[in-house]
Write a structure and sequence with these properties.
Porin, 12% helix, single chain, 9 strands, 271 residues
């Protein structure tokens, strides 16, 4: 009888205190399945598009002023508008592709090499009216960047599924410069008279500096795809191009080009 009473008391205590005890017990968080860690130590191929802007500085006006008739025409005028300056801003779109390989080292540091090739529509021009002896005529200098290629070293740091990186390398840009005046190819020998143009095309080497971020797309993409955003600065330095007026005192003059590019793209990492 005593055992029955003790058992009843114990069951009653459990019935009253059980829920409170259960509430005090720690609850383990559910285990969430995670996808496999992204392997950045692979080669990849991708495409990109963006927008660029820059600056062209040149001495075209100095060459124009060296023509044998300019001093006579502009007697008494210290610096006519036709002598410039012909410096101008440039802008336009870019689209192309990239190919590269990465290697991740200790502490999630990454070193890689990347090559790019892209079409460029970055261009600009400056136009000035001729002097009063040539009413309706003008002088113009135009620059256009046709395409670019670069080879750069990437150094970055991996944070979870994101890569932050900088890059430095050499760029090659193809440029076309168009000079418009009335003294080509010799003084007052433009075909048909009036204003004529001469174009010069050259491929130049320059310094590329860049910053970017690259992020892995969701696991549903099988962890092969990333998206990226990148900024590039390219300085192509100085180049002398001809001024094709045989009678001019200056037969060539320097041009300088720099540009900035913002672009976005996607990469596919090979298995």
């Amino acid at each position: 009888m005593r055992m029955l009473l003790l058992s009843g008391v114990a069951l009653a205590a459990l019935a009253v205190g059980g829920p409170a005890l259960a509430a005090d017990m720690p609850v383990k968080a559910p285990v969430v399945a995670r996808g496999p860690a992204f392997d950045w130590s692979r080669c990849y191929v991708g495409v990109h598009a963006g927008y660029g802007w820059g600056k062209n500085t040149n001495s075209f006006g100095t060459a124009v002023a060296s023509g044998p008739t300019e001093a006579v025409r502009n007697e008494g005028v210290s610096f006519p508008a036709e002598f410039g300056p012909f410096d101008h801003d440039t802008s336009g779109g870019v689209v192309g592709g990239q190919l590269g390989c990465n290697k991740v080292f200790a502490n999630n540091w990454l070193v890689g090499i990347e090559g790019e090739l892209f079409w460029s529509g970055i261009k600009g021009q400056s136009t000035a009216p001729e002097d009063r002896a040539d009413p309706g005529a003008f002088s113009r200098f135009e620059s256009r960047n046709n395409w670019d290629a670069d080879l750069a070293l990437r150094l970055g740091h991996v944070i979870n599924q994101t890569l932050l990186y900088g890059k430095v390398g050499v760029a090659f840009g193809n440029f076309r410069y168009t000079e418009t005046h009335d003294d080509f190819p010799t003084t007052h020998q433009c075909p048909g008279g009036g204003v004529c143009s001469v174009s010069v095309t050259d491929t130049r080497a320059g310094l590329l500096l860049g910053l970017g971020v690259e992020h892995v797309l969701p696991v549903i993409m099988n962890t092969h795809w990333t998206v990226k955003a990148e900024y590039n600065y390219i300085n192509y330095g100085s180049l002398n191009i001809p001024y094709p007026s045989a009678a001019a005192g200056i037969q060539s003059f320097p041009v300088k080009d720099t540009k900035n590019i913002l672009k976005v793209g996607v990469n596919f990492y090979f298995p």
